[in-house]
Amino acid sequence: MASAVPANLEVVLSPLVLPFSQPTISIQVAIHNAAATPVTIVKWNSPLDPSAGVLGVFKVRDATTDDLVPLDEIKISRQLPPSADDLVEIPAGRSVEAVVNLPSGALVAGHEYAIQAKGIWHAVWETPREEVQGVRLEQFEDAMRGDFVSNEVSVKESGN
Fold it and tell me: What's the confidence (pLDDT) of residue 70?
């Protein structure tokens, strides 16, 4: 497996509703592929993972105190190889979007919070999804791996 992920993948966050109130913070996530070819990713522990909100992918910082806000996190054991449902194709020049609900935990009314996604792409192929199968999927053949970091978005706890 190669270690460098294409620089063409960009993770962009935007708040869905500002301000929010507990129990969750809804964040719109877009993964943009600026390349001229499609890419296929394993969505495990990425912003596109259905459990991303509780996997530690997102960091919440209190902009008032500059402290990281502790969020409940879980660990998931994954069975290898990934299934076809664990793969997401991002067409050339396009984006794939998802809504992530983060537990708002112990957020303080009236405070502003900065949210950012950080993590590792576990496998990225510069090819369409239908070409990622068999030994290529089982052994992550020709897959790249590397870090991702999103922009920061600000949200404010309304206390409602």
Answer: 86
Predicted confidence at residue 25, as pLDDT, reads 83
Burial grade of 100 (CB within 10 A; 0-12, 13-18, 19 or more)? buried
| 1 occurs within a structural domain | no
- The CATH number given to whatever domain includes residue 52 is 2.60.40.2970
| Amino acid (one-letter) located at 12 | V
Tell me which amino acid residue 52 is. A
| Rounded Cα distance, 39 and 63, in Å | 35
The structural domain count of the chain equals 1
Q: Is residue 4 part of a domain?
A: no
Name the DSSP class of 101.
E
Longest dimension (CA), the chain: 52
Q: What is the pLDDT of residue 47?
A: 96
